[in-house]
Amino acid sequence: MITDKKILVLVGGWGTHNKKEVEYSIIYGNTIKNELKRFGYNVILKECTRINQILELKENSKFILYNTLYGKYGEDGILPAIFEFKKISYTGSGVFPSALSMDKSRCSLFINNCGINIPNFVTLRASNKYKFPFVNLEQLNNDPNRFALKSNVKLQYPVVVKPNSSSFSTGVSMAKNDIDLQEAIKKAYAIEKNIVIQEFIEGTTIHVPVLCGKALTPIECVNSLVELKKLPKLSFHTRSKTYIVPARKNDDILKSIKTIAENIYSRIGCRGLIRCDFKLTNDSKLIFLEINIQHSIRPNSIAIKSAEESNLSAIDLIEKIIEDRKVF
Description:
Shape: globular
Number of helices: 11
Structural class: alpha+beta
Largest sheet: 7 strands, antiparallel
Strand content: 15-25%
Radius of gyration: 20 Å
Helix content: 25-40%
């Protein structure tokens, strides 16, 4: 046992358009509570439905906050700022890593400046002159005032359209023509006024959990249901995807991916458990897609399976996250 302090697990969410954020927070929180209780920890759930429930927490509280909230307020740096101000010990990354990771376009630029490849993209911000959704790719490519990774690069279909700050792929669409693009922008704009339009990268999707600075086993994601008996034993299905554990790449490639994920973790200044998502192209070029600063621990999930392949149990994960908390 690493601590005798009471552990308060925050679950739920407030003011959210995304029911998945609340649903998965509750699953994550109950997984943490049940696992900690099984090993003798003093732990309780605290459901959060309004911000005042956080603001009312006493300063210098003698418990540890385990944050499982997602999206706005949950993983965008607001909660760590409150905890820091009140000097309350909490799990997860701090204010800057959380805020940066939630802003997809700025995080991508930061990662690119570290020498890591990212997709070409354009960001439509709320202050732009465009009247959504009446935008086409020619307008974006020829606009001298666009906010883009490289001013001389022209986007081509297909493109991926997504809100700049969202979780669980909410509002994400692929556009293959101008009509698709208008619908995709409209869908994303209904969630957030800042929108990212980026090139679609062909290749293998690779997820890499990073725990306290150390990359766990990379997992390959396939957007279809593949027969599990033909795959490594820890592979698993979700509703429409297959996760292959470990990813089917040679050891040198997997080692390189893990090193880059650890570099991202270190450069951003993360704590606890995060996940880096990549695309590996057919010519073995690695492209960073995004970072999930609030990577959850749930039954039959990426974190659990990756950890198991890395010889770590669920309680090992949780204890390491708690041990790596912010302490005052």
